[in-house]
């Protein structure tokens, strides 16, 4: 215990600090009561650290966030998100940004993909696909599984893309035969796939679809909206011949919202480079962003727009965690599947129907129909009162009839937090309190 | 001192915690050594707070960031930026977002302006002006004081705006006569003014220009790029008849980067509403964002793209601080002027020339020419080694010849931090070490 000695000073300081934390005159009071602080060479740093800590500002109560994004974020990631200001050209940040770009490649299982990390909601990813890869009048096949397929198509059309939709009933996905039939109709510049539609939790078989698209025409660009999948669902960018995969920071990559994240194949970059029409966007133009991404990855700064320094630092911490926790990323995907299977097995044992059939369901979220006769306001406030936040329905056709549980990132990967057990326990209790009678063999 | 009693438990816990902080088995060790933690009803929260604190994750060294953005950020703002995840439709967040929109109006001194807070770099603000207010072929007068005037014009042209520039030599601004002459040439849909050009620190007389523009044609839209001014320089949105003012979160509003922030007059909103041409953007369209801003301000959630929850919470804290610190916002502007005058007086006393002449210089930053024969690599690394980060030159014509000191936000408003004294002391020392000989009466 010899090394406890230098820390002894901290005891009386912290004792008094607890008194002072809520007092706006704290620094002055500390200086008055603890003159020795001014002579201890470490005291300035110590004081600053205490002051910077969340001890005084954490909210009284935190509710476990189990919606399909934003998700719960690791404390180390949050610390980076709330880190002290750093210049966007500081060598430390340049290295963090560069590493984040490299790590993103590993998470998406690609050797040669070109990553982009841009300040924006994930939504900007649709614009970036449209303005950089689509020329006015070009045909795009939208494999539409719900709300987000509609929105992606809307974005493509703003920039002159002509979309054809392959749709399916709510909560299911187009058949492979329907997709093949659409591909046979005419040649497409691009096919878009919503990997997981956050509105319903329908999962699309990206590998099989990509194979079918490329077999029909290897020049067709395969775009995966992976907002509710990347980092959770299996997605092998190179092996599956994906050309663009996009997501946002606040989903299975486990950082706060505010970053639009993409991976682009060298083939798609070549299509971009050979583009004839002018790029109909300034902020979304890869001509602006590509030199910045290449520069930071080469560990030199470049400027187009000030990057969201702390958010990128947070993403950097999260990506490192992801690849340290399961050095083989396949283990992460498998864990998401196992946890999802468990959630769905438990919910099924309650006698409740899920929005997509199990074989068409995502592993990052679960959409659950309410019991007959029960409305969302009877359930969700009870769940919230028990400290868990779920999402209501989003797909306009069925919105009042179902709720959504998100299970991705830390809540899935860190068993010791008990997030999954807790959400299931709380939802079961709340259903019971709302008058639902469970089957006898309910888990 | 009766109320110290409930805190006594914290003393031995924290003492041991200091031993444990760097140990990955910390939670287990604490549980073993402090079984009483499990019986104290407050212990769970206490432990979580300690765990969430930055005590263990703060970088070893922090350099004082004195560039013209990002700027130093208050610890309470950082705590919000690194806060635990919260749903973007949580009533707590809905209220914070709504308040942030209202507070923004106060900081910009407007009663009726329509605020927008969007996930993006400030750069998106240019796109939003262009895609919502400019129709293809319309004429725009760009009052160009440097790097950022060029960039704004480039963005406007991407969307079909036809720009005419009124330029001035580097480090100075167009004369009022030159602006009047340009206004007399032809009618303009819009005039853009870079309030403070971050590349050189030139300040534009927005009030006088706006008056001149509106006198010539009250229908001309006056747009102020306030990225390096809003929250620091005097800007009276209503009184000066400004139609659009835009900034980013990481400048004088004192939050981390990642938010594009705008204020739009009701007149400009009416021009937007009467727009004939389709809006050539999806992510930048006010048709998408306006209902979201109106909803959150009315304290109901609405969805277009997931907002950057923690960044908006950070901005909310910062805006509250700004308006608490100086309830009359004019006092904040006056303080920025006083500090800027001090910095410029000291730098002048060193015998160094500043980039804009004093009467054309911003109060949020100072651009300083290096002494004859000295290069940036002789100075900036020395400054950095002393714990202060400055920015090099940015305007391409003179980039290697000058450096920039940012002075806005907390570094200006909170004297007790000593940021201004420190940056002046450090730069003076570094200049001396680089071989510069100061005049005898140097401050």
Describe the structure concisely for a colleague.
The structure is a homodimer of 443-residue chains. The first copy, chain A, has 443 residues and is of the alpha/beta class.
What are the SSEs and their pairings?
2 copies of one chain form a homodimer.
Chain A: H1 10-20, H2 26-33, H3 43-52, E1 64-65, H4 75-81, H5 91-107, E2 114-119, H6 124-133, E3 139-143, H7 147-158, E4 162-166, H8 176-185, E5 190-194, E6 196-197, E7 202-203, H9 206-216, E8 221-225, E9 244-248, E10 259-264, H10 266-273, H11 286-297, H12 309-325, H13 329-349, E11 365-369, H14 376-385, E12 388-389, E13 391-392, E14 402-406, H15 410-413, H16 419-433
Helix pairs in contact in A: 4-12, 5-11, 5-12, 6-7, 8-9, 14-16
